[in-house]
């Protein structure tokens, strides 16, 4: 082990020196400003990567783009929204890959979020997308409603809910996604008793090990593959085992539940998956579809918990907004026995509040796309070569006063129906945009709004101003899981 550790130190140190000098002054020669080593700043700092990109973004207010080295690649931070649109949508064939390195033996990473092979990604996305149609979500909503109700029951039984409110939210999002994937376990009294909770926390929470793996994958894909590192390998045996067990049980029961497993069985019964436009084919194996199920945990538990968390932090800071949310939620519960899909969709002000929370604290702080063939950005006529990385600094764009006046002010009116058309095109990116926009965006909104509606029907928040200095050290997310607010039962007031 000592030899391996020393070898890693030597290899990484050498790679750092090589990539630092190989990228030096590349963009300056193209008359484009250059920023420092963002990977080094992130690794040695105490902030999220999204904040590091924002620092670069804010340092050059008059520029349209900023050159940066990213691992062993040349990167470009995009500031002009026309170029953002080109990368995410207009020139998608040049930028379809996220540029995330995975190994063939990492089964759970072979999902729609990480896949860089265009044909595989396209076919799998085509087959998975029907899970999130309005009709499917309506059928699934009873599961979300039940978990949201159980979430509040869990809080009422807890004596220390204010010690770690984020953990409670994480329990809800994990249980909700788990039940939506595999159905409600009739053997448990409360759906919050989820077997997936510990796994979800390990996946979602930034750690030295996870940050190291992503650091190596960016710094040296060759080294990453040589070491056979797995981004998600720690959870393979458990998760794939669960999927196989549930599939076996459901096939024998043959009772429709309207969850993800039902869709998996439909796909497998239909036989080989085929893209009619290209002829590309894939077998819908248990392992392949387990990876897609794992994607929901990977993309949904932490991001949805963070969205709810930041929404509550801002509601605690803004009593007038909180009062208006209470009024809308109470009216919904007075008129309906259960909070159905249609009821949640009609909660217009809660929707505005959640949208503003995701504007101010986007679930993913930055996006990246690897260039797959030489191309040119429309604004500035910048040549992007194959292998370069385009960075969309979401957090920075969402806090840009040119797009959002008084960006640090929490103002849900930005998302009022009459103001929606004024939002900057491709300037609001909580779920990304274009063909790789988050496939579960509608599910996430439903889950978040249902959880908040049930919570705020029973609880209110004591006033407390929230002013974070920075966020947790994460390659992807904006997180502040230790931040607190005080939940108070409304019936006790």
Automatic annotation (TrEMBL):
Subcellular location: Endoplasmic reticulum membrane; Microsome membrane
GO cellular component, one term: endoplasmic reticulum membrane
Membrane topology, from the record: Peripheral membrane protein
Record's catalysed reaction(s): an organic molecule + reduced [NADPH--hemoprotein reductase] + O2 = an alcohol + oxidized [NADPH--hemoprotein reductase] + H2O + H(+)
Pfam families per record: p450
Domain of life, per lineage: Eukaryota
Listed InterPro entries: Cyt_P450, Cyt_P450_CS, Cyt_P450_E_grp-I, Cyt_P450_sf, Insect_CytP450_Detox
Molecular-function GO term, any one: iron ion binding
UniProt-annotated binding residues for heme: 438
Obligatory cofactor(s): heme
Keyword 4Fe-4S: no
CDD domains from the UniProt entry: CYP6-like
Keyword check for Heme: yes
Keywords: Endoplasmic reticulum, Heme, Iron, Membrane, Metal-binding, Microsome, Monooxygenase, Oxidoreductase, Signal
Entry EC no(s): 1.14.14.1
Record SUPFAM superfamilies: Cytochrome P450 (SSF48264)
Main location: endoplasmic reticulum
Family: Belongs to the cytochrome P450 family.
Name listed for the protein in its UniProt record: unspecific monooxygenase
């Amino acid at each position: 082990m000592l030899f391996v550790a020393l070898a890693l130190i030597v290899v990484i140190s050498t790679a750092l020196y090589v990539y630092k000098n190989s990228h030096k002054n590349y963009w300056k020669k193209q008359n484009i400003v250059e920023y420092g080593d963002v990977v080094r700043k992130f690794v040695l700092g105490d902030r999220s990567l999204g904040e590091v990109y924002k620092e670069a973004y804010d340092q050059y207010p008059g520029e349209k783009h900023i050159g940066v080295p990213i691992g062993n690649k040349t990167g470009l931070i995009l500031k002009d929204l026309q170029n953002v649109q080109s990368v995410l949508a207009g020139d998608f064939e040049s930028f379809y890959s996220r540029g995330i390195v995975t190994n063939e033996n990492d089964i759970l990473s072979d999902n729609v979020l990480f896949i860089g092979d265009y044909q595989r990604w396209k076919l799998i996305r085509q087959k998975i997308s029907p899970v999130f149609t309005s009709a499917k979500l309506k059928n699934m909503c009873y599961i979300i409603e039940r978990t949201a109700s159980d979430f509040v029951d869990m809080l009422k039984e807890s004596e220390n809910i204010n010690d770690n409110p984020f953990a409670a939210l994480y329990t809800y999002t994990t249980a909700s996604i788990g039940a939506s994937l595999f159905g409600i376990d009739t053997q448990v009294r409360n759906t919050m008793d989820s077997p997936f909770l510990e796994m979800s926390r390990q996946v979602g929470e930034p750690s030295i090990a996870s940050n190291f793996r992503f650091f190596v994958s960016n710094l040296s894909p060759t080294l990453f593959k040589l070491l056979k590192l797995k981004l998600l390998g720690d959870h393979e045996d458990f998760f794939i085992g669960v999927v196989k067990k549930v599939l076996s049980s459901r096939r024998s029961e043959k009772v429709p539940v309207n969850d993800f497993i039902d869709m998996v069985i439909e796909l497998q019964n239909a036989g080989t998956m085929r893209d009619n436009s290209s002829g590309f084919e894939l077998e819908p194996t248990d392992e392949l579809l387990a990876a897609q199920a794992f994607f929901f945990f990977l993309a949904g538990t932490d991001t949805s918990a963070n969205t709810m968390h930041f929404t509550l932090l801002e509601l605690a800071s803004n009593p007038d907004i909180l009062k208006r949310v209470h009024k809308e939620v109470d009216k919904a519960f007075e008129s309906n026995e259960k909070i159905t899909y249609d009821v949640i969709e009609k909660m217009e002000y809660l929707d505005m509040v959640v949208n503003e929370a995701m504007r101010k604290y986007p679930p993913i702080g930055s996006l990246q796309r690897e260039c797959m063939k030489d191309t040119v950005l429309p604004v500035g006529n910048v040549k992007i070569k194959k292998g370069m990385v385009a960075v969309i600094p979401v957090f920075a764009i969402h806090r840009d006063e040119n797009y959002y006046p008084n960006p640090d002010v929490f103002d849900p009116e930005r998302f009022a129906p009459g103001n929606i058309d004024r939002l900057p095109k491709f300037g609001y990116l909580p779920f990304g945009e274009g063909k790789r926009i988050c496939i579960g965006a509608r599910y996430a909104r439903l889950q978040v709004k249902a959880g908040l509606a049930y919570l705020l029907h029973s609880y209110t928040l004591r006033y407390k101003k929230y002013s974070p200095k920075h966020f947790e050290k994460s390659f992807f997310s904006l997180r502040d899981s230790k931040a607190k607010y005080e939940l108070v039962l409304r019936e006790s007031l």
